[in-house]
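Could someone model magnesium ion with this protein?
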Amino acid sequence: MMTEMSEVTPQTRNPPEAHEPDLVIEVQDLCKSYGKTVIHKNLQFDVRRGEIVAIVGGSGSGKTTLVRQIIALERPTSGTIKVFGENINSVDAQTARLMRCRTGMLFQQGALFSAMSVFDNVAQPIRELGRVPEPLLRDIVMLKLEMVGLPFKHAYKMPAALSGGMIKRVGIARAIALEPELLFLDEPTAGLDPQSSEEFVQLIATLHRMLGLTVVMVTHDLDTTVSLSTRVAVLAEQRVLACAPVEQVAGIDHPFIHDYFLGARGRRALQALPAERRRQLCEAALAPAEAGPRLTSRPTPGNEDGK
Ligand SMILES: Nc1ncnc2c1ncn2[C@@H]1O[C@H](COP(=O)(O)OP(=O)(O)OP(=O)(O)O)[C@@H](O)[C@H]1O
Ligand SMILES: [Mg+2]
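Reply:
Sure, complex below.
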């Protein structure tokens, strides 16, 4: 099942001079270390316009660190990162500001400022741009809250008075406040019950369609990965081991992939794919998900706690 096509290797990548306008993110030869600890080593990663790319990998494999470098919150040790065709570590301040406006982020932790109301949280990126007349600001915030399915009556509540699912929605409303083209989501469904999680997946799918977004999400949630992603990037061994549609990635012979995708939960998620994609699955992924043989004795990384 594994194809050379799905492996990201220097041979399969475009040479840097052949810049495609469709490439929204281009990460080349990225190395990142904290002291002696190497997190990324010669990592390659591309995202095209309109894609929903799920980044999966064991806890501590460097998923959040990769995203933080792409949004310039963290500097690479070496290598280049281009976003919208611009090298993020050599752009001038004005271009950097513009690029921030074109990008939204839902952080893994602390999605909201706890001392600000829902309204002020969503308004904050807009206010940062400069003075916006209050009636206009109110309209924009109302629209964003409506887009994420949060009634405006909650606008003056403080984050502590909201449920986990509502906090995530407000976090998304804030991330899309400036109508970005590129949206990063770090563990968007972590901590949500299955129904809220499913609703949230539907919300992302709707926003992706409505706003023509490119989405990069880090997730441990198999159902989210399978139902939303156009490609899955597997982070292991300090690099992106593969980046391809989930039905191809699931067939790659690698211990992490085996454990992650081919356990009972993984098989169940994969078998929910539409028929034409299910046909591409390897045999092991098609084994019965309910009472099938245990394919591995190792725990599924990142899923032990039901995240
Ligand atoms: N500022 C920092 N200083 C030192 N080490 C760091 C720093 N940030 C991250 N690390 C280390 O880098 C590694 C990767 O961390 P990262 O948060 O990117 O992992 P992750 O894949 O997002 O994990 P999780 O799934 O648990 O969120 C970890 O070992 C972490 O301890
Ligand atoms: Mg993380």
